Amino acid sequence: MESGPITGPVLTDAAAGETPLRPADLSGVPAKPNPAVATGEIGGTFWRRFIFRRPLAALILQRLGLSVGLLFAVSLMIFGGIEALPGDFATTYLGQSATPQAVENIRRDLGLDRPWSERYLDWLGGAVQGDFGTSWASKNSVSEQIGNRLGNSLFLAFFAALISVPLAVGLGMLAVQFRNRMPDKIINVISLAAISLPEFFIGYLLIMFFAVKWGVATFPATVYDSMSFAERLSAIALPVATLVLVVLAHMMRMTRAAILNVMSSAYVETAELKGLGTFRIIARHAAPNAVAPVINVIALNLAYLVVGVVVVEVVFVYPGMGQYMVDAVTVRDMPVVQACGLIFAAFYIFLNMAADILAILANPRLRHPR
Amino acid sequence: MNLRSIPLSAWVGIIGIAIAALCAIFAPVIAPFGERDVVGEIWAPAGGDFLLGTDNLGRDLLSRLIYGARTTIFVALAATLISFALGMILSFTAAVTGGFVDQLFSRFNDLMMAVPTLIFALVVLAVLPQHLWILILVMAVLDSTRVFRIGRAVALDVAVMEFVEAARLRGEGSLWIIFREILPNTLSPLLAEFGLRFAFSILFLSTLSFLGLGIQPPAADWGGMVKDNKDGIIFGISAALVPGAAIAALAICVNLVVDWLMKRTSSLKGGRGDA
Question: ABC transmembrane type-1 domain spans which residues (chain B) (predicted)?
Answer without folding.
Answer: 69-258
